[in-house]
Amino acid sequence: MSAARTLHLNTNVTGTGRHPAGWRTLDNPKSIIDLAFFTKIAQTAERGKLDAVFLSDALALRGHAHGPAQSLEPTVLLTALAAVTRHVGLIGTASTTFNDPYNLARRFASVDHLSAGRVAWNAVTTYDTDAAGNFGGGAALDKTARYERAAEFVDVVQKLWDSWEDDALIADRTSGRYADPTRVHAIAHDGPHFQVRGPLNLPRSPQGRPVLVQAGGSEAGVALAARHADAVFTAQTTFDGAQAFYRDIKARAVGHGRNPDHFLILPGLYPVIGGTLGEARQRKAEMDALLDRSAELAKFAGALGVTSDALQLDAPLPYDLLDSGTRSDVSSGFIRSTVLLARSENLTVRELLDRNPGAHRMLVGTPETIADDIERWFAGRAADGFNLNADVFPSGLAAFVDHVVPLLQRKGIFRREYEGTTLREHYGLPRPTSRYAGRADVTDTATSGALASHVAI
Amino acid sequence: MSAARTLHLNTNVTGTGRHPAGWRTLDNPKSIIDLAFFTKIAQTAERGKLDAVFLSDALALRGHAHGPAQSLEPTVLLTALAAVTRHVGLIGTASTTFNDPYNLARRFASVDHLSAGRVAWNAVTTYDTDAAGNFGGGAALDKTARYERAAEFVDVVQKLWDSWEDDALIADRTSGRYADPTRVHAIAHDGPHFQVRGPLNLPRSPQGRPVLVQAGGSEAGVALAARHADAVFTAQTTFDGAQAFYRDIKARAVGHGRNPDHFLILPGLYPVIGGTLGEARQRKAEMDALLDRSAELAKFAGALGVTSDALQLDAPLPYDLLDSGTRSDVSSGFIRSTVLLARSENLTVRELLDRNPGAHRMLVGTPETIADDIERWFAGRAADGFNLNADVFPSGLAAFVDHVVPLLQRKGIFRREYEGTTLREHYGLPRPTSRYAGRADVTDTATSGALASHVAI
């Protein structure tokens, strides 16, 4: 951790890349289930000294007629990527609505052990009725309930990560003492959503706690992030808006007694890179020509909560439909950011679709213009770094690593070599002490059936 | 799959091995969180052409003052082991009581993809109040409810594994068709315990379905295994008893319309190997000398559901205490098998503890006596193979691989080379066709929010 402020860069992997038709340009269009494809992404990120590979996720299948989405379970895929890399961080998305905290805490701590301290959990609440249909058939919890559950879920997970102190595993061959029961703690959590006794059945992981990331820009998400997260992933489309978001959320963190330097604001960025602006535009145009426009329009209408025929490609958005009536929180954030972008630049539906609406800021340009833009946002404290989306992997990422990263290094804002080994070190975050350190409670549960567990095989 | 009947051998990994003091002989006594340790185990198993590495599991910490137990989450650890091996199968234990079927189906299917078809799920119901305390604080479900849930859980998981037909992923760059919606099926499961719409968000895995294993010898477990499992792991301590179990459970499978050759009976075996019988005994005695007898006695008493002072090392079991009164099903299987062993050989508590009570049959001997015993059980149809426990890894396994495996190969009952690449092929199991193949229902859910899922990052 050097004293100077350093840019942080993740590569954000969703499907085979952000461009919906990108898979049609791949040698192996079935890459979504091909370990070699993800290996190439992770090794390219590591070659570029990026902080981390970040896997998005969803818990339902959608749109499979038209293109790929994240399919392999993130903690499993990250473990495979840990085996083929040595430095790059490994960030996985997992839902607080459709998991149990004990299993999730253990899974991320396991990856942290196996990656020697490189893992992060991106906690999402999953506002998705398709996913809910895979977990009980009911509707997703309403937003307030989801975030209440999420806050308690994160609390339980972090307590479990702290339940073994760092020096609790003794393993002294001479005395036969294996763990120190005074340094292994029940968490005895008893809350509205979870009752979890603990401790975790795994010694504390290399980072103490895996890095905690929060994604999503709703008020409830921002509040959760400001209190708990080590980094927040956010969709910001304008410099001024991003500066305001940055100031606000850092101030909130300070209000919770936190050091704002230990809380990274990482907006999404979607660069499309060419040697000249014309080449960059050409790259995008070639992929756009492969788009199924009617399928894209139907997906877009679905996300906005309107029918396809309410949208016309060469007309503005139907603002009256979008502004009126009650709206589930499912799509409100998406609608808000889409309307903001459309109004601010007076865009037609076709132009909006070209701009990757509602998701991450697209920059079509040369390495120089993209590096300058990144520097401007970073220096202007609109961002501490970025989640980089590639139009298609691995080529979109390789272009960034080979042509933009060297410019950022020359500007003196990005590392030339990894200085640490853990993701906490890449991010400049301190390693937390267990909250239970020094507590005297003894929680050994040795006598209640260890042999029975053997019989269970 | 050759026509001749072939022995099947897994190595069963619990902690650092079966002997409670084995960790005190290791160079790195903290091996339980050391990937190099597990890598060595998996590579040794593969060198011996074993069918699989099998990870036990528990969902609570117990006995940590005295020794290690499985800590790293099995699907995560198996993924790491897939990266350092090419042939050996990878079997992970996971609970039907403390998981959701959608997440579990996806996780095992993901490992199956990343290992090119080498994974199996060992489904257990987890009769463990310590674990229950980590998942809601209540008592574990009673046995009937647990097995009803388990049967439905397995059904849901297998439906999800079938929800993509083999040829559903088209990924045709020219037409832009990615998946064939007529070959991707909602499962629309609506049962007493689970309502799961499906489909899985992952194309069908290399084995079609990961291999399904069931462990545990209770009536409910046996019934579940005979109907659904590809292999059953069982604790059998006598040849006659094992033959009877084998005959009974294979007959049950036939009664369900199954081919008995596609249902493997694999008792546990715990060999302690020396160049001479004296050396084998010496190896065991040296580890026994490192045991904490009072801790072992306390664990044993806990597993039997009695207090420590009810047991005396040099007296028989207190049969009256064990036979009388109501007994939770938590420990009844353990008690039954322990009492059977103690009565059949008139053993004291100390002698019982020496025999690894209630768990797996211990054979202290030379490579020749152990290979002969294995051949006898295999030829006599008391077993289709074994789950091999090592006293301590990796040396206990290496002794088996280097000295027993060549004898089994010379007897013509064990493979000299892997003949296939998947665990199904090692086990001689057919690859199942999706139950939905040919069904005409169309389940594309493309329009309901794919863009919203991008916003969620």
Automatic annotation (TrEMBL), chains A, B:
Keyword Amino-acid biosynthesis: yes or no? no
Tell me the keywords, alphabetical order.
Answer: Flavoprotein, FMN, Monooxygenase, Oxidoreductase
Question: Luciferase-like domain spans which residues?
Answer: 33-377
The reply on keyword Transcription is no
Which CDD domains does the record cross-reference, listed alphabetically? Nitrilotriacetate_monoxgenase
Highest taxon of the source? Bacteria
Instruction: Report the Gene3D superfamilies cross-referenced here.
Output: Luciferase-like domain (3.20.20.30)
GO MF annotations, alphabetized: monooxygenase activity
Q: Which SUPFAM superfamilies match?
A: Bacterial luciferase-like
NCBIfam families under this entry? FMN_nitrolo (TIGR03860)
Concerning its family, UniProt says: Belongs to the NtaA/SnaA/DszA monooxygenase family.
Name it: FMN-dependent oxidoreductase (Nitrilotriacetate monooxygenase family)
